[in-house]
Amino acid sequence: MSHNPTLIFLPMLAVVALTFVAFVRMAAARAAIFDSMEPDYYRAHLGKPEPESARVAERHYGNLFELPTLFYAACLTGYVMAVVGRWTLVFAWGYVAARILQSLIHTTYNKPSHRAGAFVLGIVFALALWINLAVSIFARV
Questions:
Q1: Average pLDDT over every residue of 29-33
Q2: Global confidence as pTM
Q3: Exposed/middle/buried for 83, CB within 10 Å: 0-12, 13-18, 19+?
Q4: All domains of the chain, ordered by start, with CATH?
């Protein structure tokens, strides 16, 4: 059963919003410690490292440019190929939920085993999304 293909852009917008929230959090963390850093640190990131709070914020922001690129590509592929169905949306929203959970863990109490669980769940949803798309694509070949 096909759905309105533009619905695939809603989970994409959710991850984009999460990325901007992470950027603001990173900027705020860096602004809070800027005066305590060596003057040239941000030129080449050499010298005494940032405190953990700023490093976690920076890593969290950077992570949103890794696996999410495959998520964006999958969503765009589904849209272009006009194969956005119920399962496509379920897997896309599942990925968003896992990514938000991972982000919440990473930016609050940051227990690696919990964060890893959310990460693996996101991987499973991203893989399921791509398998779903591959089946749809191969059905047209």
A1: 90
A2: 0.91
A3: buried
A4: 5-140 (1.20.120.550)
